[in-house]
Amino acid sequence: MIDFLAIDRWADAGSSWLHRASTPAKLLSVVLVVAVLVASRSAVGLSLVCAAVFAALLSSRLPLRAVLGLALAPVLMSTLFATTRLGGTWESAVLIVEKGAITSVTMLLLVCATPRTELFRALRRVLPRTIADMLLLAYRSAFILFGRGLETRQALQLRGNPVPWQLGLRRNAFIAGLTVIRANELAAEQYAAMRLRGYPGFSSSALAWRGRPDAVLLAAVGAVALVSLAVAPSLPPPGLVGTALLTCLGALALRIRHA
Questions:
Q1: How far is the CA of 227 from the CAs of 233, 243, 252, in angstroms?
Q2: Cis before residue 115, ω within 30 degrees of 0?
Q3: What is the C-alpha to C-alpha distance for residues 49 and 57, in angstroms, rounded to an integer?
Q4: Are 17 and 59 in contact (CB under 8 A)?
Q5: CB-based contacts of 2: which residues, under 8 Å, 6+ apart?
Q6: Is the Cβ–Cβ distance between 254 and 246 less than 8 Å?
Q7: Which candidate, 29, 54, 21, places its Cα nearest to that of 221?
Q8: Residue closest to 255 by CA, chosen among 7, 14, 47
Q9: Per-10-residue mean pLDDT for the chain, 259 residues long?
Q10: How far is CA 202 from the centre of its chain?
């Protein structure tokens, strides 16, 4: 299961260049990356985006093993889907895997480098308030309830003997009912706690731009988008590999320097 406490700790305690950038700049960067994924049809161009995203992960000083472990499931699903498209060209299969990896790591960088209070305050300004509140409440509740449902099912299986499938359906229905009741209680408790802490009070810092860190982030994302769409498809493979390696080595040097 996803360790949300660890994600919140990384977002609140981090001090890298990515953490210092404002929430609007990070959201705009994610939109630019998604736009590149939609517009690009070149596996060669997206390979440079992959290198840039990995370089951002290296330089953000987030725990590599933990973040890549969280990103593994979407990548495996993309790989499984790509195997069903082997009737086409190899480039189309590689394209699917690259898009899955880029999307997964980009979203993890966003949530691991942005305090969730600032993130949802910013989303509340651009999304309908009801949808923003639903996303905030479901941020943890869905995974917590899913985990508790599996634990309850495993406990019943360990304490009881094998039963006919009819009784098994009744047990699963019972577990689902308990999960729904617990979901209602959890949502009410969480919303009450949020109201006591001032939610949905608006903080101007959630939408305040931060000058140099935002300029660095947006310039880097814009340069990667431009190169991946216009330049990378025409580069020879050795030049592209060299560019990607230099990008990752520079990020690694930055991570070691600030370690």
A1: 9, 11, 21
A2: no
A3: 12
A4: yes
A5: 70, 143
A6: no
A7: 29
A8: 14
A9: 72 85 89 87 80 85 85 82 69 82 90 82 77 71 70 74 74 77 75 68 65 86 81 56 54 51
A10: 24
